[in-house]
Task: structure prediction
Amino acid sequence: MHHQFRAFLKDPDAARPDNPIHSTAGGRVHGFRGALVGGIHVYGWTTGAFTQLHGDDWIDSGWVSITFKRPTYDGDLMTVNIAGEDFTVTNSISEVCLAGKAGPGKAPFLQDLTATSWQAGKPTALDAPPLTLDNAPRGKDLVPMTVPFSYADHATFIDETLQDNNPLFHGADARCHPAWIAGRLIYLLHHSFTYGPAIHTSSQIQHLAPAYVGQAFTVTGHCTDTFERNGHHYIVNDGSVWAEDKTEVARLRHTAIFKLRSA
Result:
């Protein structure tokens, strides 16, 4: 199966102080040819192939394991190639930018993800410290966060950030986009620490129940690992996204470089 999309980044030359790697200047400082399109967004466009293959139920109960191999830039034409559970996402010169596995039902990695229990969200730290390998909460739970997700916020994400016209993400019973769900662990870490520029390197995601727009979600997490590799500092966080009725809608793992080596 083949599925194509064109990656884009609204105004790549704009400054993005929250993560400069997604700006032209910030990308070049770290040795890239321009602004990197967010990994969560590239993953979001890729999920269109999974719903085509497995049906819309995939976003309620399917799974994916994805690794980012190369940067994706504004304007890149991307092709999703699926063979069984395996998939790759290549750019216009056939470089593999993403690779992984996806399927319906329970993931083979589900038992490896740390199960975190529901906890009431707490306010974002006003004096959040810079994240380092020394102060990272390895082996500890992250501070839980509550995220109101209004129809207006959802519309901005769907219509402007992703431009996804799948009817499933529109209307009174709109579902949260898998990319929005996947991004919650990024923001959970920002709930307690300052860091960046950062690069998303991999994710494992298990959808467990429908997630509907127009409610407040709670995000819980656990830091499972931190390490240095080739001069980059990495963090691995597991977590869950909970609906207002305390239903666990997704369990996931997110790995990212939170401090890049000098270019």
